[in-house]
Amino acid sequence: MGTIDVDQAFIQEPEHRPSLSTIEGQGIPVIDLSPVTSNNPSLSSIDALVKEIGSACKEWGFFQVTNHGVPLSLRRNLLEASKSFFAQSLQDKKKVSRDETSASGYYDTEHTKNVRDWKEVFDFLAKEPTLFPLTSDEHDDRILHWTNKNPQYPPHFRDILKEYIKEMEKLSYKLLELIALSLGLESKRFEEFFGFGDQTSFVRLNYYPPCPYSHLALGVGPHKDSGALTILAQDDVGGLQVKRKMNDQEWINVEPIPHAYIINLADIIQVWSNGAYESVEHRVIVNSEKERFSIPYFLFPAHDTEVKPLKELIHEHNPPKYRPYKSGKFLLKRFEGNFQKHREENLQIHHFKIA
Ligand code: OGA
Ligand code: NI
């Protein structure tokens, strides 16, 4: 019998290792978006939807949506393309490796909270070029123009990704409107942060190979997403878990629902809403037998957006809870912490909390 050669970089501290028992019970809300995707919605159905979104954001920070309007064929095509891409040899995948000139490309060395994730990734930018600061130093104004890495295989990969991004944009604008309304804001309140084409959003193709020590490692360690929100397609294997906000803080499985999208609020909405809505911790369990694919779209504003609590939500009894920060500088600091196993905690939104 061979022994498994365990690479220490992947090993989670005991408190973060996945427990083998799974929690049964109420899962995250499933919300039908047809009031905003069908042809003649009634005002009362939109009202009810806004309420539903508001409670899901408050109680969970995570929900699934159905009747979202994204064509199923497109999602299938992208999933197939992703499978073909990752099935190539490492050498072929490394032809489009991510490097210092852009955040786009293939890599298998991401760390979350300083432990290596059991996954491979291909990132693709929504805008070309994507403007991004050269360094995380606040006084350095130099800007890079990031472009995408374009795999030659499978054919039409780039076209499918571009089409998919258009659909993600449409869906994210609908969600932002509903979220704005649920906070008592104007429906288009968030549009100014995304409307001018200068975003730093990207699509990520995640591939989680079967893991021989799935009880010790994680596909993605516990983390919160740092954008505004994330729209995730997962396949039917399962593995995503959410930290329940209510009382016990248990890890809850996010059950795969065919064709649904998983929406999670991320750090920037937490700050914009001055903490009314929170970015929620989640992680990915790996499977010892099955491979798993997922496709998150991370919605981010322009790099130079100053992220701070919205003035409409601030008043005498609700003073700002967060210091303003530049979206791009924050993301860059986070990236810098993502490629090695080191001891100190990497940058988190609570570091901007006003004591
Ligand atoms: C992520 C993430 C979840 C998944 O990539 O940030 O949380 O199910 N992924 O792949
Ligand atoms: Ni995430």
TrEMBL record:
Stretches assigned to the Fe2OG dioxygenase domain: 199-301
Coiled-coil region list: none
PROSITE patterns (alphabetical): FE2OG_OXY (PS51471)
Keyword annotations: Iron, Metal-binding, Oxidoreductase, Vitamin C
Listed GO MF terms: L-ascorbic acid binding; metal ion binding; oxidoreductase activity
Superkingdom classification of source: Eukaryota
Family assignment from sequence similarity: Belongs to the iron/ascorbate-dependent oxidoreductase family.
Stored PANTHER family: OXOGLUTARATE/IRON-DEPENDENT DIOXYGENASE (PTHR47991)
Protein's name according to its UniProt entry: Jasmonate-induced oxygenase 2-like
Organism (species): Arachis duranensis (Wild peanut)
